[in-house]
Amino acid sequence: MTYQVIIPVYWGTYPLIESHIPYIKKHLGGKKIVLIGPASMREKLPAMKGVEFLDGNTLLQGMSRETVSDIIEKVCRENGVPFADRAGWYFQQFIKMSYAFHCEEEYYVSWDMDTVPLRDIPFFSEKDGKPQFFERDEDHEEYFATLDTLCPGKIKKCRQVKSFVNQFMIFKTDVMKELIGIMENSAVKGTVWWEKILYAVNPKYITQAGFSEFETYGNYTMQYYPQLYHVTKIDQCRTGASFLTMRPEKAMLEWAGRSYLCVTLEEWSMDTKWQKRSRRLYKLLPMSVLVNLSEWIYTIKRKAKKAVSLIRLKGRGRSR
Predict the structure, then answer these.
(1) Domains of the chain, with CATH numbers?
(2) Is the pLDDT of residue 318 over 80?
């Protein structure tokens, strides 16, 4: 099955492009890779065979990071909400969705540049060739509140899948077009579908996380095309930077690849203590052991902190 791979990029992910693209080309198997970002990046990108660039502001007429920001600012102003520019966060989601109108293949994969595939990603089942969703544990009710406003009763949460939110997803091109058509016909304020999405978000959350393209597409597809996809899980690590740094050496990535199919490298998860432990122990222990240990320690500390807070609160109550 042939498909294209799209990767939304911006200047913050520019340092990752040259080092991550070889892994993406090797393990994703796409017919071609399309980087989608600001026009200012075009001339700065290194020459890479099989990789194209597309200006994100040209995907749909009238849709740009600036026009998305204008609507967010307007919603904030009209509802007395402090403005914070989350335009880039929403815009990259709209890029992933609107690429369906440019895609030449039956399927296309959206991949995040800060995620490194370390082994082949099974976008299609070896058993019957069906595409696959990769279930995760995210739980954010505001995404579904937005859908209830945007498309009342038309997109319901799939009870069999906890979350579709991930760093990557394979879309069926015509299903995405169909989904966008439903949004386009929404009675919510706005001229086109992406405007309607923004106006459907509760103003209190528009500067936070008010919409998810992956939850929307995943739940829509499972509702109306329940036999189209398989749902599975793969070993992946979201907090890769805690153990590998933002620019890991080849040996460290090979170590990570023995535990995970892919790792995500984000600055928010940086932890120099665990990076040093990884450097000392990577020849002795699997990365998954250190990741599980760190999560266990974090959980214990969080519970202990909560217990101490409750004891102090009860102490104040008695002193009164």
Answers:
(1) 3-232 (3.90.550), 236-319 (no CATH)
(2) no
